[in-house]
Amino acid sequence: MDHEVFLSGTLLIINPITYRSTSLLANVSPRLVCGYTFSTLKSRVPEEVHAVFLSSRQSQQETLSIFTAIQSIKASWQVSFYFKNIMLDRTLTAWKGKEENTVTAKEAFFRM
């Protein structure tokens, strides 16, 4: 079916596939998350889509682990990562809403 969408100009933004709602699978490995994410993408996303942008709502450590594992997978798309949540979490934790922690928060923001 042709919906006249310029697929090669499309940027797909997704979250990695995780199992937060299923307690039996709550602690799956980042590699398994990558496998499920990319097998779903391969079966559902047309090859004409050139870029996939991954975002994540997991903890900082979980997100970094998932993104590191994803980098090792050979994908037909360009893959980019959205690190805003990681950077904000670290910055807000360092800042704690106190003026005297501003320098520490800035250092945390730029440390990756």
Automatic annotation (TrEMBL):
Q: Which Pfam families match?
A: Glycolytic
Q: Which UniProt keywords apply?
A: Glycolysis, Lyase
- Kindly state which reaction or reactions the protein catalyses: beta-D-fructose 1,6-bisphosphate = D-glyceraldehyde 3-phosphate + dihydroxyacetone phosphate
The protein's Enzyme Commission number: 4.1.2.13
Q: Provide one Gene Ontology biological process annotation.
A: glycolytic process
InterPro entries reported for this sequence = Aldolase_TIM, FBA_I
Asked whether the keyword Lyase is assigned, the reply is yes
User: What are the boundaries of the signal sequence?
Assistant: none
Keyword Acyltransferase part of the UniProt annotation: no
Protein's pathway: Carbohydrate degradation; glycolysis; D-glyceraldehyde 3-phosphate and glycerone phosphate from D-glucose: step 4/4
Gene Ontology MF: a single term: fructose-bisphosphate aldolase activity
Q: Which Gene3D superfamilies match?
A: Aldolase class I
- Name the family the entry cites: Belongs to the class I fructose-bisphosphate aldolase family.
Matching PANTHER family, A to Z?
Answer: FRUCTOSE-BISPHOSPHATE ALDOLASE
Protein name per the record: fructose-bisphosphate aldolase
Species annotation: Arabidopsis lyrata subsp. lyrata
